[in-house]
Inverse folding.
């Protein structure tokens, strides 16, 4: 994180300050989960009582192929610190290829994010099947740690 | 005699409920009779189910509620059967409904009476470990929720009567006689537990307080049990550190009259051990077993995980002979043999894995119905008719037929339902009433009026999340006009309450904050339909599976998150719109893929139900793998059965058989599937309503033990054929089990091979009485009544030598003969055998074609490449894709009778679709705005279902049009449309964005303070 700050010349000192989250300020994450695999996987994490950080709130969509890049950008614009998109493993999509479409869109969006100054690591695409409760819980844990290292979402703080 | 379109089911456990729902959904009136005051049976007492650790009540509650509220199911609880007259197609049954002294039409199940009742008695639901009142309901989610006065203990003080606001108490209520007229009967009374008092001398049950039964432990593990999910020692309430499980108590024991295996206790014990270790930190479970019978789908994986990941200790032993107690500590001492040495070990708690015995009512039922019982007082059936009793028109399902697990029970229940409905199929729809919902309220122009119901789910949510606080918070949200909390929002009385409140408060959106919409969404949608609301005006917030259960140790944060989740639901609910329902016609026919015994039975049953069956077989003859079987375990004539089955199929004009045929392409949707066939190289297209996958499995060709290198090394099937032809000559025979099964790369058990080996071993002994037979095995898994034949084999002098993956037998050539070397664990010495024949018991493999077929049908495969059903416990014969079903070996290895049960079960489930003629279609699909569409065709290109197509409109403009029946509502086209012309209903952009915005809202509120601090910090540093 320190490296990230030093390689990029800070636009202003406020930005620089804002990068280090004040202690206790919660990281705010959302996860888009497809109805058939990942939402069920998240449920399984619950059934198996696998504990993960409460920072993440899940939004159910029928398929990751339904996710408009607009949803993701808007989330960052509103101050969400990280967005997780979880879908069926490639080949397992309930709608055959929705997850492949999502993958293409998200990879493109990540490039765009870097261009406009939102660290693309704030957006992560993961495949989680209905039987991978552990994978879901681990993913959330890992993602939260990663976002914590990145700090709060700058765009939003700059706006406020 | 005229046939009657109604069925009576005796026993309202999971079997009775499944049969009832199948029949009621296929156009028959059902009377569900249970001697208990509530339905739900034994499954209602379970905490978790193996091998998925699903919460039993969570998966069962929707079925309970559905059964309770079904307009074509009449519940007769607290009732017993007095008399049966008549014959198949028309029975008259006298039923006595014992007075519960509380009026079912008035009691709301509020439970106030139980608060005031002064009498406390041991609660049998909690196995005597908790107290209940003399007026009580069996369990919180009970259906019906009506309370009952236990007259044995009631002192008649009248306090409950004075406290009941609903005036439901009626002391003077008398027993009621009912006469039912039905066409068929299904008997499903379940099972009873072996009476452990009989083992008092051996294990001290009832004598030593810290010796408990496995069902008692199950209640301890349950959140609604005596200790809220903790395992505590009955003697001192302390947390036990060391817990021993003793297997086969009351099972596999001829000395007590139960020589059979109870089929479920091994897995039950592993599950309890895993959950107990989870609930009590530092608890070490130790299971003492004879054979580990993890024979079902993905059971062995569970067993391996329990040992390797959860660290549960397993010790193979002869049955533990006795348990003694240290009188000071009340700890228990077990003696056992490990690695050839006698050991003595102390435990804090001992759990007896109690066996299943016939239900108490068995003899009475047998007498009333005239049905035959087997020597152990279970219902007698044969392998060809696993759900038929000796009396035509009376069928059987569940544990009363033989000890079995839940999926086996559910499959039999559906199978029995198929027989019952086929018998009276001509009377379909004659006695049922149409399900009617009140006319939908037009909410156009109304501001959102949202009602929110927040669930405690017992302590599942309420134990972590501060539910009342959430409710108070919800009340402050815009457009929320009503909010309350419920102990169980899914219970039947709450459904009535939601309906009532929706009407009183003129709600036009309803939110339930509880568990997952995947299981409970449809239930609540139906509830609000009952209040005149469109089902799409319902929204759910998942504050259990995705909140309280995963943040158990952070109650404050979990409460905050629950608030946020409900707030997001409210934001979305505001924007929800009613969607019109569309209807689709159902083609009254079925395609059955696979012409083995499973497929043939399915085709025959479809025809008997009155629909057309197309039976597709890839080879040139019907019968599949059964063509290679000759006789059953009890000497049943399988050849004769197969010949008769073939001729029944040939003579049935509703069945069309396609030999040498494969499925080339498959499209469409429930009720309207289209299958492209390759029939002997010619193309043919079939239209059909449903599909049943019965593609079977195959025998593994061993690559080990020198198979193929010696003409007297054969597989069980090959040997069976030779034996049948009388070509076997020799004196010494060796069988090796688990060839290709239970290996690292193929960890599953093939289920049938142990019994197959026993069957052939007994046949060898019958034909060659002076021969010697050795069976080399890992575990003998002759579950259920098959155990009797294992016992017979032992008595016949068949020798059993155990090995494991580290000490596999070595096979080599000995001149022209065969040499086998194996370590005999018992004597701890290597032995060499020189048999005339080596017979290998190879694994049952999934078909290679499964992958392609799964892709074509768009259904999943399990990790072992068998087809994966919609739910491992409660939906064993159907896929999540509507109208596609499965049965037999395609699902996992299984026995002949199990395949037949499943074939009929798949038909029964299929009939819930076929009997409809017109079905309501999914409404949350994508629609095109003609004015925005520029006719670019991107949607047409991207859609996997070919739902959109470009059509020319009046002005000559090309626009996209989406076929409602083909659209699955995935929303890919909406995202792809460059002009925003496509909207995915129920998942519209603004509906999703509102949730994102609402999720971010919290940040604004919560971060306002820290952000200020940050600014202050910045200025301070600036000053520096």
């Amino acid at each position: 994180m320190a490296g990230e700050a030093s390689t990029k010349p800070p636009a202003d000192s406020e930005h620089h300050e804002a990068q280090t989250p004040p202690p206790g300020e919660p990281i705010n994450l959302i996860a888009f989960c497809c109805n058939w695999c990942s939402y069920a996987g998240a449920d399984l994490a619950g059934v198996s009582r696998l504990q993960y950080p409460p920072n993440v709130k899940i939004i159910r969509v029928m398929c990751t192929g339904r996710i408009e890049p607009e949803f993701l950008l808007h989330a960052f614009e509103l101050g969400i610190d990280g967005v997780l998109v979880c879908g069926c493993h490639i080949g397992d999509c309930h709608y055959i290829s929705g997850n492949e479409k999502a993958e293409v869109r998200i990879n493109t969006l990540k490039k765009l994010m870097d261009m406009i100054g939102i660290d693309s690591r704030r957006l992560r695409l993961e495949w989680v099947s209905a039987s991978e409760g552990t994978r879901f819980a681990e993913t959330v844990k890992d993602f939260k740690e990663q976002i914590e290292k990145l700090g709060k979402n700058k765009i939003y703080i700059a706006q406020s | 005699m005229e046939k009657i379109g109604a069925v009576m089911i005796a026993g309202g456990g999971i079997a009775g409920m499944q049969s009832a729902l199948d029949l009621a959904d296929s156009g028959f009136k059902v009377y569900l009779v249970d001697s208990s005051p509530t339905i739900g049976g034994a499954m209602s007492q379970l905490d978790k189910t193996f091998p998925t650790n699903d919460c039993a009540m969570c998966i069962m509650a929707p079925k309970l509620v559905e059964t309770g509220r079904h307009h074509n199911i009449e519940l007769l609880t607290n009732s017993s059967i007095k008399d049966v007259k008549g014959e198949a197609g028309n029975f008259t049954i006298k039923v006595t409904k014992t007075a519960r002294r509380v009026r079912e039409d008035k009691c709301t199940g509020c439970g106030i009476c139980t608060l005031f009742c002064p009498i406390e008695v041991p609660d049998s639901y909690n196995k005597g470990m908790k107290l209940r009142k003399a007026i009580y309901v069996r369990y919180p989610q009970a259906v019906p929720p009506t309370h009952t006065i236990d007259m044995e203990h009631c002192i008649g003080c009248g306090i409950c009567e004075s406290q009941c606001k609903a005036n439901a108490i009626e002391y003077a209520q008398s027993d009621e006689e009912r006469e039912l007229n039905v066409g068929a009967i299904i008997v499903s009374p379940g099972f009873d537990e072996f009476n452990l008092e009989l083992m008092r001398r051996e294990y001290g049950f009832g004598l030593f307080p810290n010796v408990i039964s496995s069902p008692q432990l199950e209640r301890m593990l349950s959140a609604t049990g005596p200790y809220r999910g903790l395992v505590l020692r009955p003697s001192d309430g302390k947390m036990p550190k060391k817990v021993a499980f003793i297997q086969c108590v009351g099972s596999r024991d001829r000395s007590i009259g139960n020589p059979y295996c109870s089929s479920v206790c091994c897995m039950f014990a592993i599950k309890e051990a895993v959950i107990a270790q989870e609930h009590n930190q530092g608890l070490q479970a130790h299971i003492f077993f004879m054979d580990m019978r993890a024979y079902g789908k993905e059971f062995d994986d569970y067993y391996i995980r329990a040992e390797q990941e959860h660290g549960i200790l397993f010790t193979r032993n002869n049955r533990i002979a006795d348990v003694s107690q240290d009188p000071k500590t009340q700890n228990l001492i077990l003696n056992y043999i490990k690695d050839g040495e006698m050991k003595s070990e102390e435990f804090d708690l001992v759990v007896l894995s109690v066996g299943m015995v016939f239900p108490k009512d068995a003899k009475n039922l047998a007498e009333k119905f005239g049905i035959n019982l087997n020597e152990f007082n279970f219902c007698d059936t044969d392998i060809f008719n696993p759900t038929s009793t000796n009396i035509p028109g009376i069928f059987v399902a569940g544990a009363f037929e033989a000890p079995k697990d839940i999926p086996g029970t559910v499959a039999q229940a559906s199978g029995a339902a198929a027989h019952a409905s086929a018998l009276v199929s001509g009377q379909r729809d004659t006695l049922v009433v149409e399900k009617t919902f009140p006319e939908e309220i037009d909410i156009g122009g109304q501001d959102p009026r949202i009602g929110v119901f927040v669930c405690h789910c017992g302590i599942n949510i309420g134990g972590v999340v501060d539910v009342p606080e959430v409710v108070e918070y919800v009340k402050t949200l815009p457009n929320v006009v009503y909010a309350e909390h419920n102990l169980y929002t899914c219970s039947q009385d709450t459904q009535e309450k939601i309906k009532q409140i929706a009407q009183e408060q003129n709600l036009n959106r309803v939110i339930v904050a509880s568990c997952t919409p995947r299981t409970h969404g449809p239930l609540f949608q139906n509830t609000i339909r009952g209040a005149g609301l469109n089902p799409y005006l319902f929204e759910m917030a998942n504050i259990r599976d995705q909140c309280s259960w995963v943040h158990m140790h952070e109650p404050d944060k979990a409460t905050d998150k629950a608030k946020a989740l409900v707030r997001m639901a409210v934001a979305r609910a505001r924007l929800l719109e009613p969607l019109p329902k569309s209807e689709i016609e159902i083609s009254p026919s079925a395609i059955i893929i696979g012409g083995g015994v499973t497929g043939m039975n399915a085709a025959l049953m479809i025809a008997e139900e009155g629909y057309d069956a197309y039976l597709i077989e890839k080879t040139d003859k019907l019968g599949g793998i059964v063509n290679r079987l000759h006789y059953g375990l009890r000497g049943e004539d399988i050849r004769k059965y197969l010949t008769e089955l073939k001729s029944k199929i040939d003579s049935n004009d509703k069945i069309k058989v396609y030999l040498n045929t494969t499925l080339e392409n498959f499209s469409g949707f429930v009720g309207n599937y289209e299958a492209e066939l390759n029939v002997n190289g010619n193309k043919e297209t079939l239209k059909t309503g449903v599909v049943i996958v019965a593609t079977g499995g195959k025998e593994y060709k061993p690559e080990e033990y020198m198979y193929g290198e010696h003409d007297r090394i054969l597989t069980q099937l090959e040997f069976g054929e030779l034996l049948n032809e009388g070509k076997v000559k020799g004196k010494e025979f060796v069988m090796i089990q688990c060839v290709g099964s239970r290996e690292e790369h193929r960890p599953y058990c093939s289920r049938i091979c142990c019994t197959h080996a026993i069957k052939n071993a007994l046949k060898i002994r019958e034909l060659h009485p002076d021969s010697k037979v050795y069976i080399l095995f890992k575990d003998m898994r002759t579950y259920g009544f098959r155990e009797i034949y294992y016992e017979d084999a032992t008595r016949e002098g068949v020798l059993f030598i155990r090995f494991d993956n580290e000490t596999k037998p070595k096979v080599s050539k000995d001149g022209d003969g065969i040499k086998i070397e194996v370590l005999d664990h018992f004597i701890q010495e290597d032995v060499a055998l020189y048999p005339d024949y080596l017979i290998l018991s190879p694994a049952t493999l999934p078909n290679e074609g499964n992958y392609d077929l799964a892709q074509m049908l768009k259904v999943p495969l399990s990790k072992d490449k068998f087809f994966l059903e919609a739910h491992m416990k409660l939906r064993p014969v159907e896929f999540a894709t509507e109208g596609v079903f499965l049965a037999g070996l395609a699902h996992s290895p299984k026995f002949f009778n199990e395949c037949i049960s499943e074939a009929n079960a798949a038909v029964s489930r299929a009939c819930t679709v076929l009997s409809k003629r017109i079905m309501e279609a999914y409404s949350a699909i994508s629609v095109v705005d003609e004015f925005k569409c520029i006719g670019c065709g991107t949607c047409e290109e991207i859609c996997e279902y070919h739902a959109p197509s470009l059509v020319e409109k009046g002005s000559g403009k090309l626009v996209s049009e989406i076929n409602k029946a083909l659209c699955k509502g995935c929303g890919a086209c909406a995202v792809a449309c460059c002009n925003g012309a496509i909207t995915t209903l129920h998942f519209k952009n603004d509906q999703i964005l509102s949730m994102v915005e609402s999720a971010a809202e919290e940040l604004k509120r919560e971060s306002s303070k820290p952000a200020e601090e940050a600014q202050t910090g910045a200025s301070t540093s600036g000053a520096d």
